[in-house]
Amino acid sequence: MGAQSFAGIRILCRNLLLLRKESGVQWLIGSPFFPSPTIVSSMRCLHTLPSNPLSPDLAKELDDIRSLIPRGFEVIGALIVRDKGDMKVEKVAGDAISAVVSFRKALYGNDREDPVLIGAVLDLNIGSSERDLQFFISRTGNSYKLDKVSSVVYEDQPEKEVWENFCIVCCELPLKLPLYYASDNPKAAEGAYAQAITAVERKLRDPQVAYIVEAPNRPSSGGPEPVILHGFELDPAAEELPENAINAVVLESDEESLKKSRTCSYFLSESRDIASFNSVEENADKILVSVMFNRSKSNVEPTAPVAEYFPALGEAMLLVVNHKLEVLSYCPKDLRLTDVISKLIIPGLVDQLHKLKDKILPDLTQQLQLRPYHFMPPGFLHPITVIYELSYGEMEMKQVEARTSLHLRLGLPFDRPLLRIANAINLSSIKDSTRDKSNPKVGSSLLKDVHHGIPSSGVSGGRVSLIQGSYEYYHYLQDGFDDSGWGCAYRSLQTIVSWFKQQHYTTVDVPSHREIQQSLVEVGDKDPSFIGSREWIGAIELSFVLDKLLGVICKVISVRSGSELPEKCRELALHFETQGTPIMIGGGVLAYTLLGVDYNETSGDCAFLILDPHYTGNDDLKKIVNGGWCGWKKAVDSKGKHFFLHDKFYNLLLPQRPNMV
After folding, report:
1. Other CB atoms within 10 Å distance of the CB of residue 382
2. What is the dihedral of CA 37, 38, 41, 43, to 10 degrees?
3. Residue 87 banded pLDDT, cuts 50, 70, 90
């Protein structure tokens, strides 16, 4: 098996190598819309054969991967990480290619031509970094005829490559399936359900079904008109076209002919800045597709409605199964809308429908509440789709195990709740007012992340360690509540709770002063008379509230004088680098929120990034920054003024990030 030289492949994903210390297999994900072999993401193979841990169990892997990646992305390669060097690297690469060929054949059959396929190998005896990877390609799917890749290009702006000339298409389809079956034969419900699923699949390909394609948030005046495509317009050669459909094709106007040639770009902006890509919601071009099963195409000849009656042979039962399909597809802006529907949306809906069927059929009577959600975890350039069972709480073991498995497959950390429902992609901007409100993401009017863009600390040669993630700025007099002179620690606690909420560790609302006091009474720290009072609280009380409301444990650092705080900078820097949570500093009658430190280990010079809850003005970011209410503070400034008091002891509350998924 010889290997010739091949020009090159492109790598867009930032986390290509998920296995660095153990052998295993990874799937390499690309898109048929890219002109050259391009790796967009990588996913770990979790199911392998007992006889060979480097051979994927295709039946199980196919089921998982098919539902995870949107249409428009596909498996284009495999990476094998081995810890034994007793086989030639070309042979291992050939095994990787063979696995991909088998995977694609099981998924697409023999009707689809394979693109250039990639086989990659990492020998842990040689190295464990991406530069130690060896790439091979197969132009024909033949694992015995490989070309060695001579050039691997890592793109500097992967988001631009993925999204500048492409868009996301969303189709949501609620289904209500009434199932009738004999009361003395409950098993018959399963057959009725399978028939109902088959009927829906047929309807999706019915010549008279209507697909409404439209831009999100179309203004009341102006903007592109929605395009309505019927089944017979998607495939002119479709079999069993009704007579009226044929007449409609013959009589179609120039305008109707034009709509079938329209591409996604008809709905999209001509230019979009992808340089600062933050999320699919904010930055990706989007199109919405709705499905209308009613036969809305006008008949050439008048017809009368027909009702059919099928009398039951005995006592019958009715079971109604509700499904909500929601598929995302990825496609170039110059792809015809007819191709989007026929080649991406319909197959995606059918795939998801069968996935739901496979999950619900083992016990139809349980009425599982299955719902697809879409996520775009850190480091991923495209969305993934996960189907959750809503009957279970997110903290129940079954759900935790499901998310843990997904974190393992996607190479995500196990101490970040990245795949909880609260973290799902919010597509409300492209849905109408009838959207399910079970997962709202209501925007807050409070200022977020006010430390972004502030002037530097002035520490020469220091290392900056900052809070990780977003928070909201809580301060005196907010919400029309006068807590000036006593509520600074309460406000610091609210900012800390907002951080946990923003990172989706909790869905608990940020507590009010009274709710904070109520919590302290409930844990036995305060008497009932404390509720409604204006008494101060400190770091210890904050730790009690965080434990009660969020289940968050805290570490406390105590110093006898404010002059000792600079000695704790190394420890504080480590906290921000490993935990990343905001810190409450309490000393005397004052409390602050610490967002970071700038520390020079050699000179000992340091500065503290302080968010001051004592601010009493309106939420004017410029006023807050210019007034020093959020900024770097040195223990002793250039005028010799001490920020931290020498005659007061200080407690620092360091909330610990929960180790959870």
Report:
1. 23
2. 10
3. confident
What is the rounded distance in angstroms from the CA atom of residue 15 to the CA atom of residue 38? 14
The two counts, helices (H) then strands (E), for the chain are 16, 26
Tell me, which fold does domain 463-655 have in CATH? Cathepsin B; Chain A (3.90.70)
Mean pLDDT of the chain: 87
612 is catalytic: yes
- Residue in the structure block whose two tokens are 């995870």: 68
Q: Indicate which residue of 123, 285, 483, 612 is catalytic.
A: 612
Tens digit of each residue's pLDDT (9 = 90 or more) over 259-295: 778 999 999 876 666 666 778 888 899 999 999 987 6
Q: Do 100 and 119 touch, CB atoms closer than 8 A?
A: yes
* pLDDT tens for each residue of 445-501: 899 999 998 999 989 999 999 999 999 999 999 989 999 999 999 999 999 999 999
Contact 383, 328 (CB under 8 A): yes
Q: Is 509 an annotated catalytic residue?
A: no
Q: Pinpoint the alpha helices (H) of 555-598.
A: 569-578
Q: Is residue 230 among the annotated active site residues?
A: no
> Given this model, what pLDDT does residue 405 score?
95
Q: Which CATH superfamily hosts domain 3-155? A: Cytidine Deaminase, domain 2 (3.40.140.10)
pLDDT for residue 373: 95
Judged against a pLDDT cut of 70, whether residue 436 lies above it is answered with no
Under 8 Å between Cβ of 508 and 519: no
Highest mean pLDDT out of 143-147, 434-438, 505-509:
505-509
> Rounded distance, CA 136 to CA 7, Å?
11
From the list 63, 504, 614, 619, the catalytic residue is: 614
Q: Choose the catalytic residue: 170, 488, 606, 630.
A: 488
Cβ-Cβ contacts under 8 Å for 150 (sequence gap 6 or more): 5, 6, 7, 8
The residues with which 302 forms a beta bridge, in sequence order, are none
Q: What is the pTM of this model?
A: 0.79
Distance CA(116)–CA(34), nearest Å, equals: 11
pLDDT of residue 440: 33
Which residue type does 596 have? G
> What pLDDT, on a 0 to 100 scale, did the predictor assign at position 148?
92
The pair of structure tokens assigned to 566 is 């600079």
Domain parsing of the chain, residue ranges: 3-155, 166-300+313-430, 463-655
Predicted confidence (pLDDT) per residue in 385-401, tens digit: 999 998 877 778 888 89
Element (H, E) at 204: helix 188-204
pLDDT score, position 300: 59
- 237 beta partners: none
- Cβ(105)–Cβ(62) below 8 Å: no
- The model's confidence at residue 1, banded by pLDDT at 50, 70 and 90, is very low
Structural tokens at position 42: 């990588």
Asked if 535 contacts 486 with a C-beta cutoff of 8 angstroms, the reply is yes
Sequence-distant contacts of 338-344: CB under 8 A, at least 24 apart: 338/229, 338/233, 338/234, 338/260, 340/169, 340/213, 340/264, 340/287, 340/289, 341/211, 341/213, 341/229, 341/234, 341/289, 342/234, 342/235, 343/71, 344/71, 344/72, 344/169
Mean pLDDT of 239-259: 51
Q: How far apart are CA 418 and CA 471, in angstroms?
A: 17
* Kind plus residue range of the DSSP H or E element containing 194: helix 188-204
- Are 280 and 382 in contact by the 8 Å Cβ rule? The answer is no
Say how many C-beta atoms besides its own lie within 10 A of residue 465's C-beta: 21
**The dihedral sign for the CA sequence 421, 398, 28, 140:** negative
Cα–chain-centroid distance for residue 599? 34
